[in-house]
Design a protein that fits this description.
The chain is built from 11 helices and 5 strands. By secondary structure, it is α+β, with helices and mostly antiparallel strands. It starts with a helix and ends with a strand. The relative contact order is 0.06.
């Protein structure tokens, strides 16, 4: 019975170490693919290690675990992970040290409480791993993903510290014999068990601080974008007011002339004058590109800018009066996308200049803005456009921030010298 509980707790631990990896890692593949590959690869590895533990015993297996489990797991998750850099190393050590803490503490407590039955070890692992996983999914995973995405520096030193603690735990646990057979080393191991979470707590405090600084910088950039957008709208309104004032001034003079003609009885001449004035004052009716007033104003402004620069505009916009996200936020995204498209078209010959803007609202809200370009568009490993020029790239970050806040998805497609931004918003 004791041996069954020992092997069962070992298999249970190995399985839940796998689950912890899957919870903390950002995979580069779909969830379905990761699940299939993990089951096909890691389950046999877990079964093999459980069998070897029973055959070899704790002392021998502990000395070989690095080669039997740790290295194969490292290689496997490395190919699944989205971030193949020091962020991966840090996360690997984080998951393994969390798991090691549960395993080792359960072994130590079992040695003192139920050394002959392994009941305490079995119960602790049965309860502790699901509790840790629940807390990881509910409280840790999302902020940890945000930290991985925003913090770019410091992962090397954090990984080094994590690796040192991880190696110390492995060595202390298995060499020269399993820790439960070395009571004289128990105090050192317990100190190490206390220092490990304190170390990670300090690291996460530093990472959170860096993340807050990055968030503040990003919000400042977004505020600047919105400010520039509002300034452009104010300038447009000022221009409209100026045009209206000039037209009122001209109308006053025309009425004075018309009054003089009527006083002289020149009715036919007055009619001709009115006809000419009507033709002069006749302005093309304002186009309504969509039902939402804010977004319609943005499209009108930038489409006019494009036409003034001899850029052809093709639009098909099915946007309701109440779009699925805040219209002001969406207007900033559209403004930046159209502004970038206009700048790209200006570098092309006049016969090559064209901007396509399409939007559908059913079954999902999808907005796509595309334009040709000359030169090369630099992208990161995730296909996101980047720029090394100072002050550039803010628009891209604003799009990503918008998607993050609204649960939307942004896709950039670059092929055949055509750049396309597609935004999908879940209703």
């Amino acid at each position: 019975m004791s041996e069954i509980l020992r092997l069962s707790s070992a298999a249970w631990s190995l399985l839940h170490i796998l689950l912890l990896f899957l919870f903390f890692y950002q995979p580069r593949y779909s969830k379905k693919k990761v699940a299939i590959v993990s089951c096909a690869t890691m389950i046999p590895l877990i079964i093999l290690n459980a069998v070897l533990l029973g055959v070899l015993g704790q002392n021998t297996y502990g000395k070989l675990m690095l080669f039997l489990l740790v290295i194969p797991s490292f290689v496997f998750f490395f190919f699944l992970a989205k971030h193949r850099d020091f962020r991966f190393v840090f996360t690997f050590c984080l998951v393994d040290t969390i798991s090691a803490e549960i395993v080792i503490l359960s072994m130590i407590l079992n040695q003192y409480l139920t050394p002959d039955t392994n009941i305490v070890m079995f119960v602790i692992r049965i309860l502790a791993f699901p509790a840790i996983e629940y807390y990881a999914v509910k409280k840790l995973r999302k902020p940890y993903y945000e930290i991985q995405a925003s913090v770019k520096k410091g992962w090397g030193i954090f990984s080094l510290v994590s690796v040192v603690f991880y190696v110390l735990i492995l060595v202390m646990t298995a060499f020269p014999t399993v820790i439960t057979e070395r009571p004289e080393d128990m105090p050192i191991m317990l100190i190490l068990m206390v220092l490990m979470p304190l170390m990670y707590l300090n690291i996460f405090q530093v990472l959170n601080h860096q993340n807050r600084l990055h968030t503040a910088q990003r919000e400042q950039e977004l505020w600047q974008i919105q400010s520039n957008h509002m300034q452009r709208q104010i300038a447009q309104l000022a221009e409209s007011d100026k045009r209206v004032s000039l037209e009122r001034h001209d109308l006053r003079h025309r009425l004075q002339i018309l009054d003089v003609m009527l006083q002289k009885g020149e009715v036919d001449e007055a009619r001709d004058f009115i006809s000419v004035a009507q033709d002069t004052l006749q302005a093309p009716e304002g186009l309504n590109y969509c039902k939402n007033a804010i977004l319609d104003a943005v499209f009108s402004y930038y489409f006019k800018q494009a036409q003034e620069k001899e850029i052809k505009v093709e639009s098909s916009l099915s946007i309701p009066e109440n779009p699925p996200v805040d219209a002001s936020e969406l207007s900033v995204v559209i403004a930046n996308a159209l502004e970038n498209a206009i700048h790209a078209c200006e570098k092309l010959p006049k016969d090559k200049r064209i901007i396509s803007c399409k939007c559908i609202e059913t079954p999902q809200f999808i907005l796509q803005i595309s334009n040709p370009f000359v030169g090369k568009v630099m992208t990161d490993k995730d296909g996101i456009p980047v720029s090394e020029e100072k002050g550039h790239g803010i628009g891209t970050r604003s799009v990503l921030a918008f998607c993050e806040r609204n649960g939307a998805v942004a896709n950039y497609k670059i092929e055949n010298n055509t750049f396309a931004l597609r935004i999908l918003i879940q209703k």
